[in-house]
Amino acid sequence: MSVPVVELSLYQSNWEKLYIEEKGKIESALEQKVTAIEHFGSTSIKGMEAKPIIDILVAMKDLNDAVTMIAPLSKLGYKYVAKPEQRERYFFNKNSRFHLHICEIDSKEWTEKILFRDFLRAYPDVASAYITMKKGLAAQYKFDRPTYTKHKEPFIREVIKIAEVCWR
């Protein structure tokens, strides 16, 4: 089993196109079962260096209905990855190129991911600080993606806290 390496790529203009194409496939496969679909994560922010993984957030009214999405998503190549510690979302992986997260529309999971993305889009100086931090962590934890992710969390939490105060 290979260890997922942390390698950041320069921003790729095709990331948005890849998301739009994949969103269309997901909407077709899931029909009217979803409330919203959003591109989030670093690949959704113009100019952001990122692991070249397109993160897609799918919202539904009731997370209990997410189990019905496993079969249609598997036909698109998505593999359901059970993560018992995550009770607010379902997680799927497609060729290590797409990560799909399903959660409830008004959940903390949905709100925080969109808030963080939108704040970084609105404040390039904060996005720049995030890139700098990510580069340092990627160099330090190149062969330890869980630790890399864990060490980004305090920055993300702080930005969300600021965004909630500024925007609400």
TrEMBL record:
Domain of life: Bacteria
Signal peptide: none
One Pfam short name: GrpB
Coiled-coil regions listed: none
UniProt-recorded name of the protein: GrpB-like predicted nucleotidyltransferase (UPF0157 family)
The species this protein was found in: Cytobacillus purgationiresistens
